[in-house]
């Protein structure tokens, strides 16, 4: 669990409402703490589990197995292990930051993220081996959260880890949205697009899913290992053509996608139950409840913010300036929340940063010398891009403070160097890895 002290940047420490803002951020993240999400959705009475209105009698199964994958895997697995206490079960956890004390009897692996690596490949092999050891007499719990697409990888025959790494890097660099990235991942990976369910030998599967994808499409979260693939090889190929990536990726990928598709084995999803346990909306709603307690007028703007980070910053700045000037959609003091996930298209000579820091950096230009407002961007997993920063805090004074520190916000934005910018100013958010992942949140404050 996070505490308000985790969010006190230089600006929030100095601002009279800074502690209240920090409590609002804390409430958002703690509401989607993965252990609480599992405990809320899974109840046990004796030898019977109740999950989303369905009953599962543990003695009816030969084996009970837990497979937890994603950035929230450790917290989700620990909570389910507590619920299953006293009943024989085994588990495998694949995550980015491993727990110091995983549940007894569980194997714990660290995969690569945001790019798959050799550890991701090893995790893919172990995950599929576990699935292939199951039978119709077994019960498999799949605890799935964001990040699972990179943490676990099992390339299709004829493809290599290097092929997938190069492709993923190219897609990220060109600003492809997550749904397009996942279309390719499902086509090229045995684990994804229902591959785990197909490999599980007809076992009963209960997937408890924590969403990090706008709109919560289950096939997109960790690339849908227990969900039928809704897209085709032809669609995957069209994405490569859209971004002209053919010359930049391995020929084997194009050959695979262009080859005549082998008919898939008979679907095995009739014994799969997929349940959403936490989402961006839940975090936003918790933030707004806390904002009201803190004396702000709360308002949910949206939870589907997407597109280029700079474009999203323009939208948020315009909304914030309008709210401050006109008192709409709610009067000051106001807390408006927008959730979603933006992208950043990188260019040559790019610096360090992430989409949330870039939104904040771009917003600092639009809010220059505009009084009485704050804008806070936050990655719910506590890490923005390949950095230890989760986002940033900006105000109408940020631009002047930057210039006084010898920084040029426009130049930093041109070079996508938001991390260095906010590190110098002391306004980068560093709550540390939160153990959850439900997309990003943007907080707009007016103070009158």
Describe the structure.
The chain is an alpha/beta fold and 448 residues long. It is 38% helix and 19% strand. It is built from 17 helices and 15 strands. It is globular, with a radius of gyration of 22 Å. The protein starts with 9 loop residues before the first helix and ends with a strand.
Count the DSSP helices.
17
Mean pLDDT across residues: 95
The secondary-structure class comes to: alpha/beta
Instruction: Tell me which CATH architecture of the largest domain applies here.
Output: 3-Layer(aba) Sandwich
What is the domain total for the residues?
Answer: 2
Fold-level CATH name of the largest domain: Rossmann fold
Shape: globular
Largest β-sheet summary: 6 strands, parallel
* Strands, count: 15
Q: What's the CATH H-level homologous superfamily of the largest domain?
A: Glycerate kinase, MOFRL-like N-terminal domain
The top level CATH class name of the largest domain: Alpha Beta
């Amino acid at each position: 669990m996070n505490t308000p002290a985790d969010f006190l940047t230089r600006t929030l420490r100095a601002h009279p409402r800074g502690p209240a803002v920090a409590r609002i951020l804390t409430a958002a993240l703690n509401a989607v703490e993965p252990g609480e999400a599992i405990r809320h959705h899974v109840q046990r009475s004796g030898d019977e589990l109740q999950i989303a209105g369905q009953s599962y009698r543990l003695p009816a199964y030969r084996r009970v197995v837990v497979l937890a994958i994603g950035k929230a895997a450790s917290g989700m697995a620990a909570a389910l292990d507590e619920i299953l206490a006293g009943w024989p079960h085994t588990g495998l956890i694949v995550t980015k930051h491993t727990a110091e004390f995983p549940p007894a009897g569980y194997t714990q692996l660290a995969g690569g993220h945001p790019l798959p690596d050799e550890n991701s490949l090893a995790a893919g092999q172990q995950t599929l081996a576990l699935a292939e050891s199951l039978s119709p007499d077994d019960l498999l719990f799949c605890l799935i959260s964001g990040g699972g697409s990179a943490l676990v990888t099992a390339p299709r025959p004829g493809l290599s880890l290097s092929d997938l790494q190069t492709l993923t890097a190219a897609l990220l660099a060109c600003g492809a949205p997550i749904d397009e990235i996942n279309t390719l991942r499902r086509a090229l990976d045995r684990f994804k697009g229902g591959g785990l369910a197909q490999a599980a030998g007809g076992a009963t599967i209960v997937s408890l899913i924590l969403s990090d994808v706008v709109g919560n499409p289950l096939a997109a979260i960790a690339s849908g290992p227990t969900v039928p693939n809704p897209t085709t090889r032809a669609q995957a190929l069209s994405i490569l053509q859209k971004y002209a990536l053919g010359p930049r990726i391995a020929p084997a990928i194009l050959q695979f996608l262009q080859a005549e598709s082998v008919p898939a084995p008979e679907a095995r999803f009739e014994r799969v139950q997929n349940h959403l346990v936490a989402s961006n909306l839940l975090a936003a709603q918790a933030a707004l409840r806390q904002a009201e307690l803190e004396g702000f007028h709360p308002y949910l703007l949206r939870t589907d913010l997407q597109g280029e980070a700079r474009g999203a910053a323009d939208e948020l700045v315009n909304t914030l300036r309008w709210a401050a000037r006109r008192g709409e959609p709610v009067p000051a003091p106001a807390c408006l929340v927008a959730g979603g996930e933006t992208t950043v298209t990188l260019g040559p000579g790019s610096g360090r940063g992430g989409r949330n820091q870039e939104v904040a950096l771009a917003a600092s230009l639009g809010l220059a010398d505009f009084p009485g407002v704050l804008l806070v961007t936050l990655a719910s997993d506590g890490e923005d891009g390949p950095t230890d920063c989760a986002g940033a805090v900006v105000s109408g004074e940020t631009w002047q403070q930057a210039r006084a520190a010898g920084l040029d916000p426009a130049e930093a934005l041109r070079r996508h160097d938001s991390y260095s910018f906010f590190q110098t100013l002391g306004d980068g958010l560093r709550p540390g890895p939160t153990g959850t992942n439900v997309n990003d949140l943007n907080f707009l404050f007016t103070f009158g």
